[in-house]
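Before relying on records like the one below, remember that each one covers exactly one chain. Contacts with other chains, cofactors or solvent are not represented anywhere in the record.
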Amino acid sequence: MSTELIIKSVSRYIQLSDDEKNYFVSLLQPKTIKRKHFVLREGQVCKYSTFVLSGCLRGFTLDSNGFEHVLNFGPAGWWIADMYSLITQKPGILNIEALEDTEALTLSKTDQEKLYTKIPQFERFFRIITENSLVSYQQRLIDNLSLTAEDRFHNFCKRYPTLINGIPKKQIAAYIGVTPEFFSRMQHNLLKKDRNAPIKR
């Protein structure tokens, strides 16, 4: 499995020597996840972070009525984990599932701690990743409280431009907090208003 993409991701924030890159790569475990298979299920303890090389993962929860609520997506080049469970090592509520066949690299929490000791720069890298995640979750919460579904969809398009036409529309609906039927009507209205709308007919 190629490690070029993950090294490129890390190099955006910290600079590593060849030896440091090799050590980092030695801690990564390749993982192939088939479509509809789970990386993590609600109630399990999250033991590692997952970096997506190809394909796409989604993190979602189920409410008391059995409805899915998508918290985030993990397309190629993104990290995904149940942050609460990973940090506290307590059972989480997030399910992480493959939307399509996915190739990924995982880094265990134990090896991440080793990385901090061996290459302290990685503390900065993962701090930035965690901060970005917290900012994103806060913005999503504010969006859900204050924006219309149409505005939330436009924010989805900005955040995940490669997924606009790459995942089932019901997944986008679950992310922006509407039913698939409502999303279909909204999509139709957007297409009528804007022939250049970022969704397929």
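Residues 150 and 195 are 16 Å apart (CA to CA).
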